[in-house]
Each structure stands twice: as C-alpha cells, then as structure tokens.
C-alpha cells in the first residue's frame, strides 16, 4: 500500500476503508492497535498513515486518536479485512455498532466467531461456556431480527470440511435461512415471539450437543461400526437432551432440535422412532438441515456432495418433511448457489 492514498470522494473512500467508531477503538489495545490506521486529510480527501502495526502509540497519541475517532477522521483498510474479522470476532456485539461493514464482511465475522465459540463449547460443554455461546447467538439473532434479508449472506458461509463445530455452525446458518423462508407471521411480532426466534436459533446451532460426549474416534470412524459402537452413537440425541437442564437451556425449541433431528416422517429414525405429527416442526426442520449440511461437507467416511444434488436427494426422500426439504432448493436459489 502506498504511503498516501488520494480518493475521489468520501463514497470512494468507504468502498476501500472502514471508518472506526469509538466502540471499535475501545476494543483495540490502547497502545498497540492490531492493524494499520489512517487519518483523513479532509481538504483533499486523502488518507495519510497514522499508525503502523508493530509501532507503539504514546499516551498523548492515544488521546489524540480518541479525539480523531470522535471527529470521524480515522480509518482502517479493507485490505486488512482478515485481521479485522479475527479481532472483532472476539467482541461480537461490535458488529451491531459498525455501520460500515458490508453484509458479506459481517457474515465472515459471524462465521469466525461462532465457529470458535462452538469449538470451545463442544470441547467443554459446561454452563459457563454455554452462557458465552448463548450470548454470541443473541447478537446473531439481533442482527437477523433487524433485517431478515441478512440471512442470505450469512447462510452462504458454509464450511466445506466436517468437524462437530463446523457442522453445528453450518446447520445454524443454513437452518436459520430455511426457517426464515417459512417463518410464521407470529414470529414477526412482539417480544415474546422474539424470544421464540432466539430459541429456534439456539436449537439449530446446539442440536448436536450430545455428540460432544461421544468419543471423536467413534464419530469419525471410517470402518463399519460394531453393534455396540452404533448403539453408543444412536444415543447422542438422548444424551444431548439430558445435558440441556444442566446447561440451563431446557427450552421447547432447543429440546425438539436436540432430541428429534434424527427422527423420520415414517418412523424409521431414532432415538424414539416417532412418526408424522408426533415429530415437532422444529424436529422436522432440523432433520432436513442436519442431513443436508452433513452431505455437502467432506467427512472422513464420505465425500462431499454437490449442494444442488444433496437438496434434490432430500426433496425426493419421503423420510423428510417436504415443507422443509423442498425449501432447500429455494434456499439455494435465494442465496444464488444454483
């Protein structure tokens, strides 16, 4: 990057740089910010280097920087987007305060933050860590609640390789978009329904929590499972449902996702082999999303399927509710993945 950058207008500037808000500045290390900083010379719309990574700001410079930020004169380059994503993902609520982020950039931040948080939670599924993932998911739902159309960009952020955390995030991102496409009118009105909306999100992201108690070697085994091993694996929905009370997450929508995502319309699923109307809407939705997200990722024991082929396969399978399986094709069209 050159030492000076001449821009034609403020609009041109905002296409290539983020303007830093006081909230974002407060999240930086006070003396060693994590990325290069530029100051706007207003009379000629030119950005001049103010701070370079590796340097150290003095107390006086730090105070001056705060004033310049208040005046709207401090920017960072969008070329440093990966650094910015990593930084802001540790304080996820900042995305709600930064109006300069594009929807695509915000989606990158959510994917990075929620994947890291899910990894922490699935590695140590205790209430203290569950509270953290719940707090981050409430930021995610607040962002969606402000504009449901934002779900399209978020649902494009699909991990291509399977891990328990990546699968959970994929199911949450894709599942919320499919849910939004079939969203009942009552979910759009009032704080009580906003609470239900939050819990649907929790259920989709945490549906596989019981798998955290299944040994990794068994989850990823490439050889045929023995009868005993298979029985252990089939118990994960029941294990997950038992965990919810200890995690203070025993909400109907979350329970349904956790307990029913392997149930099938004709009664051939598990763990309870329930069928038809005995399966909740959330269980039916989560079953479709869980299968789709598994099919389109590279797993130790299976190659990734083309998303269109995976959605088509589920849409033609009578074991899945057509209200949701057919919405996968619509999801791919809406997010321009077909």
UniProtKB/TrEMBL annotation:
InterPro entries referenced in this protein's UniProt entry, alphabetically: HD/PDEase_dom (IPR003607), HD_GYP_dom (IPR037522)
GO molecular function annotations of the record: cyclic-guanylate-specific phosphodiesterase activity
Group of enzyme by EC: hydrolase
UniProt-listed Enzyme Commission number(s): 3.1.4.52
SUPFAM superfamilies for the chain: HD-domain/PDEase-like (SSF109604)
Sorted UniProt keywords: Hydrolase
Top-level taxon of the source organism: Bacteria
Pfam families found in the cross-reference section: HD_5 (PF13487)
HD-GYP domain location: 147-338
PANTHER family: CYCLIC DI-GMP PHOSPHODIESTERASE PA4108, CYCLIC DI-GMP PHOSPHODIESTERASE PA4108-RELATED
Name of the featured protein: Cyclic di-GMP phosphodiesterase response regulator RpfG
Organism: Fundidesulfovibrio magnetotacticus
